[in-house]
Predict the 3D structure of the following.
Amino acid sequence: MNLKLLYMSTLIEINKNIFIPEEELSFSTARSSGPGGQNVNKIESKVILYFDIAASFSLTDLQKQRIFEKLATRISKAGVLRVISQKYRTQAANKKVVVEKFRDLIQTALKRPARRKKTVVPKAAKEMRLKQKSRHSQLKKQRAKVKDYAD
């Protein structure tokens, strides 16, 4: 893509290193089932955002792979992510919401999971667990029926 076009377009900031130009997104509208009274039957206020992940030049292959893994249930077989908003009565408001939802989805999908830090179980905790086990064992032994061996 031409750099002049890139600077002229609106960029959606995912995080401080990742920006997706709005040209990579496509929008469509439909009649909403949300609020609007009689307008629901006349005006197309529902906004649907489509993002072709594989065709995106803003994301690296690793980022694309992570998005495919994390958002698998929201991505079609063709590799297109679909986000819908019909919360408000106007297209403009729904478009803002759908772009924000998209940004949040991509942001959470690209977050790296925190590495687990191995910790050592304290000696006192081990001893306490063993004491509790022995107490529980003694309690169960006391509940057991005593057999008469004198017979």
Remarks:
- Confidence is low (pLDDT under 50) at residues 1-7.
- Residues 3-110 form a domain with the Double Stranded RNA Binding Domain fold (CATH 3.30.160.20).
- Residues 70 and 108 are 9 Å apart (CA to CA).
